Amino acid sequence: MRRDFESVDDSLRLIDQVAAAAARRVPLRIRGGDSKASLGRPVEGEALDMRRHRGVVSYDPTELVITVRAGTPVAELNAVLDDAGQMLPCEPPEFAGQATVGGAVASGLSGPRRPWVGAVRDFVLGCRLMTSEGKYVRFGGEVMKNVAGYDLSRLMAGSFGCLGAIAEVSFKVLPKPRAQYSLRHAMSAADALERIVEWRRAGLPVTGACHLGDALYVRLEGGTASVRSAAQRIGGTEMDTSFWTDLREQRLPFFSGPECLWRLSVPNGVGAAALPGESALDWGGAQRWLKSNAPASNVRRAAESAGGHATCFTPAAGVEPFHPLPAPLLRFHQQLKRKLDPHGIFNPGRMYAEL
After folding, report:
1. Is the pLDDT of residue 104 over 50?
2. Any stretches that span the bilayer, and where are they (predicted)?
3. Can you list the domains of the chain with their CATH numbers?
4. What is the dihedral of CA 21, 23, 27, 31, to 10 degrees?
5. How far apart are CA 248 and CA 112, in angstroms?
6. Per the confidence metrics, is the pTM higher than 0.85?
7. What CA–CA distance (Å, rounded) separates 345 from 342?
């Protein structure tokens, strides 16, 4: 069944608005569905609303490539791919249908499959950007072998709109796995980390591993025979696969509560006991969700001591959302910002006050 969704090219209006803002040196707050508006520092500026610029530009299932406009809801992109038996493997969250493709790339948020298949940036083949000089430019292309500007397209992933307004994105997509099986195994976090390493070394088709409470949740995907064999080896209790969607969408009970929510990126072998609060292990241990009212300095010190960094998803007063950058890296970011956004109008200060 093929579903038809609204398709509108709103690029001329958007480019005119960007050019006018640049001429007046008026900052722009790029907005899609605002599903991640609380992630990052607040931006004071004129709204550049991308939601009308939406729809599939081109899609060739045989080539595993789709190009969509930035205002397209992620849920619609997933529906189009699902109709063709394909998927965007990095699983960006839909956030109740509000998340857009542009926001998904700009935030770089990936779902539970990330350690096994790659991040959002790994599936970006090319993109169109609106520059602060009012130009409409393309980087990259629609095939993997087209490397001209390829790295610059991927640089947009995780840039939070600070480098330019994403107008279109071309993604590499993959066929959906033939079989999927999810298991729950009661064990400690320390034991879970050891088992995950063991399963990866054995080449088992694991595409999700999350420890929450007193249990390890595992997702297996691939051919029917390999998934069945791996499930027998791992053991545990079969569970509903909706767990992974709820984890991706932050709908699990763990994500509710008055505490600040932190996302830590650390080496997957680091023990959970070192973190000041209640934590859930995702990405096989490389991503930790932490609920804690400990001072931000304590959380970030714990992340740094483990060789990682921490991002605050529910910023409190006086708490910088993103981990502070070392001076040399901050200078590099500033130089990049000046090159790609010489007028400094796109989402100024969204990531850091100095950008």
Report:
1. yes
2. none
3. 11-175 (3.30.465.10), 179-248 (3.30.70), 257-312 (3.30.70)
4. 30
5. 7
6. yes
7. 8
